[in-house]
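Data availability (excerpt). All sequences and predicted token strings are deposited with the supplementary files. A representative entry, HupE / UreJ protein, is shown inline so that the format can be inspected without opening the archive.
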Amino acid sequence: MVFFIIASFSFPTLSHELSNGYLTLKNDSGETLSGELLLKPKDIGQAARLDTNNDGNLTWGEVRKNHNLANSYIQNHLIIRGSETRCTVSVAPPSIRDISAESLLVYPLSVNCALLNEVSVRYTGLVSDFPTHKLLTSITLNEQTSVHVLDSELTFISVSPKNIHWGSQFCEMVYQGIWHIFIGLDHILFLVATLLTVNLLRKSKRWVKERSVKRIVKSTVILVSTFTLAHSITLTLAALDFITLNSRIVELGIAISVVITALNNVYPVIMRLGFVTFGFGLLHGMGFASVFGDLNAQSGSLVMNVLAFNLGVEIGQLAIVALLLPLLILLRNLRLYSKAIMPIASSIIAVIAINWTLQRW
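Structure token line:
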């Protein structure tokens, strides 16, 4: 059973079923906006037909060579208006940025409008090819940030500094925290790998069933609380710019943390998991902070946005634990669990994480 759970998590990793992107806009003056549109290469490649030789392998050369196709697609599907008329959007050639285990194409945007007392965005990109596509959108006007999620059902938003309400923004940031847990597959697999042995005991160099449900729940609470405390610390400090660390190093460290945790289930060396979970949790918090930073959630409401985003992350994390823990309690009664299911599940996670490590090296 756990094998299929892990397989279901790993399948989107390999097939990229989840489709998500980011749009950030910030006014530089009364008539101009600057920002970025971040999309998965596969998504924009398929939608804008960048893979011109149709070999199913989108290369960096094709991305650069066919920028006119991407530019045309973005111009047709991202309509930005100011207070009176449609704005002119210029799309520069992209670069690549890694966010939460994925490489995204970053298209710099320059937007010219007649008047920017109000900004509206209509986005219809990718949803015809990827119906579940979501665009996480952050618009900053006069130091006031409004955050929204555009998808197939909500394609249009209108923003002005006067209608930005803290309650709606708080809820939106909570939602984004939850969403980023579920698209952050490296964080999910770390959590799953950490909990796969919570229902077992190590005796005479063998894994055996933990008979006490109370001790299983207690161990789970300790590990999850330790992980939560650690990544909350670094998420908050990094989001508030008290600490910084190269995102490439962070993403590499997160991948390695998943490898070590998964392999430790199969070949136990570290038995005091609380200390290790705390240390790795600090790294994962930096990963969440990089995602938070790409939402461009800054301005006077930064502290509130950090708290709301962190709350969303915890809600998403607890939802995963609530689904997994009862299953683990039941599975511990199967002799096959400690001998085959747990080692196989851990090995699958390790293989996926090793692949991430090589990609991020």
